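Morning F.,

Quick status update on the modeling queue. The single chain you submitted on Monday has been processed. Sequence for confirmation:
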Amino acid sequence: MWNSSNKLGLIDPLHGLSTPIYGMLAEINNLVMHTKMILKRNSEALNIDGDGDTPLDNEYMSFASLENSSPLSEDLRRAIKMAELEAGIGSSVTESPGIVSNSPKSPMNMTTNGSTNDSPKSSSSTSSFWYRKHADAQFEPEQHVHTANYEVYDEIMTEAYELDHRLNQAKPNPQSLAQLSPRDMELQLSMFECFQLTAKIHLRQSVMRTNSSSLEIQYLVSQLTKSIDIMLGTEIEGCLCFPMFIAGMNSIYKKDRRDMNRRFNEFIKRYKFKNALRCQIIMKHVWRLNPKGDKCVDWYETVKNLGWDLSFA
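Structure tokens below.
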């Protein structure tokens, strides 16, 4: 209702000028749940049994175990040089008999002087073609999994970037601003900026899995904390539970954490909100799990494990 009313210049009595941001926060929450679901499904598909070694890996490891004791070690070194040349690492390759020439013949054979020879009687062959052929055979059955993996990340990031763009472009309704006194306008603009910054951090933390110690998150948290301090103690501070929760979870220094804990204590004394106390408990639990801020902690999972249903209104 108030989305339509805002077009007429009316102000939402609950969310004020920040109604569009609240709508995008709901979209971010939906994207968080969608991301968790498809990444879990994708992880189950990719984390197949085994230690990650393919038969080709095992073959190389068998060669490596003989490197210092077997007369075939010279052949192994030449085979590695062949592979390096194929990857653009090596500078020149010479032929060698033995292991490499006992592998299936390449359509193109290389003689000792570097010229090519199509004769099947040639005693030397390039190993790179044979190994590439076998490597392709090993990974071909999983090709659809990797394609799906790319599509999963592309879908998530496309939607996340689109939401971030809309957050950057969001502005209060000018008609609504014209109705406000200078004092109310300052508070409403601070509230708008506060939830805009909260949504940007929430998007990066919960969807993009950016850790709290990143420069971008710390910059956004510093800006958000300024907005929170402007609003605390005013008549609109009752809406600050979620912004303080997001800013608090992403505070990584001891002083910042002490200050945010103090803000919560004072806020809870004034409002006695049970949800505010629960948010403070979750925030402190995240600090214990992530003391340096260099991990991505799924706070949704923590809330779920506690059996809580938080409301940030």
